[in-house]
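Lecture 7 notes: from sequence to structure.

We start with a single chain of 188 residues. Read the sequence below before looking at the structure.
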Amino acid sequence: MGRLGAAAAKRLALEILGWTLVVLGIAALFLPGPGLLTLFAGMVLLSQQYPWFEKRVDPVKRLAMEGASKGVQTWPRVTGSLLGIAGLAGAGVLWGEHPPSPAWWPFDPEWWFPGGWGTGVSFLLSAAIGLGLLIYSINRFHGRPYDHALEQRRERVRHARIRLEKEERRLAQEQHGPASGQPGLTPG
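Now the structure, written as tokens:
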């Protein structure tokens, strides 16, 4: 019973993490942060639990990779990304320092940079992740654009291999039955 409890706890933890990443990824599509990457990470985790999710992972991965590739093909784009990262980091520091509201601010002073360091750290973390992704993208894609068609062919091969492996496991279980212990092994 202990192994079953540990397996259920692991599945629950992965599911909670997966759904959390999906929600954060969707939010980060509209807010500062690496939205597609976070969404992709959550979808990868959930695809381990839900077969219907597996088919939806590849299009998000392709979009994320294509966006990363396009963003580093020219040095002006790389510079723009660096400026955006620097702006995000600067906003994080400014938000954390929480300077007093200026005289022209028409709202309650509490609404001037609400959240303090909690919000500032999230901006700084997003900037750090963005810098890491930019470095990764430069190393992987600069001068070598993402090949959408090649990736689709690789996905088809991978999915065919997965289907074949599932079919082989199913046939082995039918042939040897569930009482033989492990599928695919002949008794004796």
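The two ends are 28 Å apart (CA to CA). Keep this in mind for problem set 3.
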